[in-house]
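I had to read the description of the data format several times before I understood it. Each protein is reduced to its one-letter sequence and a matching series of backbone shape codes. The format is easy to grasp once an entry is in front of the reader. For illustration, here is how one protein appears when written out as sequence plus structure tokens:
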Amino acid sequence: MIAEVIINTNAKKLNRSFDYKVPKELEEQVMIGSKVLVSFGNKKELEEGFIVGFKESTEYKVKEIAKLEDKLSDKQIQLAKWMAKKYFCNISECIKLMQTPGTRTKNKEKRIQEKTINTIYLKKDYEEIEFDIEANKIKSENHIKILKFVKDNEGATISEIEMFTNCSRAIVNTLIKNGYLEIVETKIQRNPLANKKIEKTSKLTFTEEQQEAYQKIEKSIDENKYEEFLLFGVTGSGKTEIYLQLIEKVLKQNKKAIMLVPEISLTPQMIERFIARFDKERIAVLHSKLSIGERYDEWNKIKENKADIIIGARSAIFAPVQNLGIIIIDEEHDSSYKSEATPKYNAIEIANKIAKEEKIPIVLGSATPDITTYYKAEKGEITKLTLTKRANNSNLPQIEIIDLKQELANGNHSMLSFELYNSIEENLKNHYQTILFLNRRGYSTFIMCRDCGYTVKCKNCNISMTYHSFEKKLKCHYCGYEENLVTICPECGSKKIRYFGTGTQKLEDEIHKQFPNATTIRMDVDTVTKKNSHEEILNKFKNENIDILIGTQMVVKGHHFPKVTLVGVIAADSSLNMDDYRANEKTFQILVQVAGRAGRENLPGKVVIQSYNPENFSIQTAKKQNYQEFYETEITLRKQLKYPPFCDIIVIGFNSLKEEKIIETSQKVYDLLKEKVPENYIISKPAPSPIDKIQNRYRWRIIIKGNMDRNLNEILNKCLATIYEKNDKSVNISIDVNPNNMI
């Protein structure tokens, strides 16, 4: 018997199967999806691979499979093959998403069981470490292997690192000594829900709208039928209660449910709602902030049929669930459902494929649906279910828009308009809570010399550095590079260095100055680096009656705070000024979502939106909370300009340390595309990306506009294969369909 084996590698030239003989003693054990160890090429170490097919004979002289390990199901292997073609990547890169966390290895040992353990974290940003690798400061393959492992599995123990990388403890100690890794003492808690004590709740009585929506999805469950639903409900309309009762229905049929949420920051509150309703022992949680041990155990809990409900972020869609009954995707419009790393998959597309195969319903929930999703619903391709009222009869908040140009004309140079200042003051007097939203972290967004116009930019990236006041550092938000403050202009010697723009740190300082007695807490990327920090900040704000929560878009989505009656949007224009065709859509979504945090109980809510462009239609329709009016304006613009959903935007990206190589390779690809792609597609000439250098790598791109059909997919895959046959390894090429950002 001959097995067709895919080698676990990112090398594009090896994206095919290789023939291996199956030893007699393994013939009855191997199957499609089996993970095996094989001798490959001239390497001394065995390589990991997966069996994707069998045949009786081969024309080649072949080696034997050395060892049989774990296995994936045939369905998982077929899904990986489908993904590899759809998302232009290696099959092995897709298989990795479906493997048990921490088992991409050659050896296994018994895991540590102490109450307190030493865990390992990166001490430097991984982008900075990658730069050291490229600069040959880190030469050892074992060092690189360990650093990559810790990047993917922060919080692993030294024993786990030894176990999963096959490297010695001495190598880990060297990396600690050289400042790349650090040891943190951690309490062991392999069950992430073990210490959660939540008061049980009973199911709520539906409103008429909720009941109608529930019954339509229930019918699909009872008929074992695939159907895609859009649950389109205003903020606070009780979408989560419908999710809970649908899952209860599925569990009664002895089936299981996957519940996806977009952000880790949303996971704790969603988990609490589920634990309050269901047995927590039957709930599994999957997201990147769990330790490797927790993820390993949760994955196996699912695999062993010990979990009925799987709650998690994007990657939870690959959980090895058997007998699935429903897939629910909350906040379906959120960009985090699309991966920006290879494979560049969309979790909603994966969920739809799984739902079709399993003949089950998929429910997409949002108050501000993605334009393409809503367009499909209007055309009847998706069943639209609408909730127009808040579930607890509370009113939508009152929204006011403040023209910041007028504030300046009236002599107000503060970050807070007069209206927002007075509203915060009133809220503090009444002992209610306030959320202030600003979608920029740091203190100042760029630093410039007033005399010559010199701007401080990252030495690795063509991007301005941001000032972080707490560390007194300038940081690049793209590669992690940091340097000390600049006080004298390196170009002209002037001391007139000024800080421009506003971030969450600066806003927090301003609030402390203007409201010295107010308690504040900040939630952005800089404050949520540690495990469970999202949950700790949200619980602190909710339970310790902190007056003001300041944050980026992490505070926008899905959170329920009964005492929040005021929301302030400091700069509504920041998302409008993006180089992206979805700038209006993202602005509308953010404003409606953040406004939805106010007045969710029976207290009246108020939202103050500050803007230099108050007449923009996305801001005006957000004020009215009128999605239909926004949609009709935006869809007309999209149709005129030929943007999704009327066509797809395919971005072929190139990056390289050598600018001349990137120019040469991108031109070759362009010439090939012009030859192969039909004339009805618009293909742009190769050009630098808007941010043309990140981490010392030059970035170019080709943009194709047209429908991504099966024919174009075949052409692009063949073009990639042709280029990779001739291309050296100095240029990386990727293809992204309708990417999250266009920079």
Remarks:
- The radius of gyration is 27 Å.
- The longest helix spans residues 659-676.
- The first strand starts at residue 2 and ends at 7.
- Confidence is low (pLDDT under 50) at residues 105-115.
